[in-house]
Design goal:
With 104 residues, this protein is mainly alpha-helical. Helix content is 55%, strand content 12%. The protein has a single domain, classed as Orthogonal Bundle (Arc Repressor Mutant, subunit A), CATH 1.10.10.
């Protein structure tokens, strides 16, 4: 009898996705920040990078700030968004991008 390999579910990543990637726009933003973890940019530039409407991206960025995934800082040209410094959060976002990016 031949045993087929099984893939173990990464419970930490699954839980992160279930909690924070609740729609496609948010998924795109999480993948974007996972691929660019040091990025600090404004909503319109991020919207352009992910190919989404700037107003929708602004709302999702603000929600991700509220949820503690992103940080927001005011500068002379407006609000800039980036990943929080939490190692666990950064690790989850980077793993999401690595494991589920459409560029695979």
């Amino acid at each position: 009898m031949r045993v087929q390999p099984t893939h173990e579910i990464d419970l930490e990543l699954f839980t992160f996705i279930e909690r924070y990637a609740t729609n496609l726009a948010r998924w795109d933003l999480l993948v974007y920040f996972g691929q660019h973890p040091t990025t600090q940019d404004n909503a319109s530039t991020i919207a352009s990078q992910v190919g989404r409407n700037a107003r929708m991206v602004q709302k999702e960025l603000d929600d991700l700030v509220y949820l503690g995934i992103l940080s927001a800082h005011q500068n002379g040209s407006g609000m800039r968004y980036g990943l929080v410094r939490s190692a666990a959060t950064r690790r989850a976002v980077v793993r999401l991008a690595r494991d589920f990016s459409a560029k695979h």
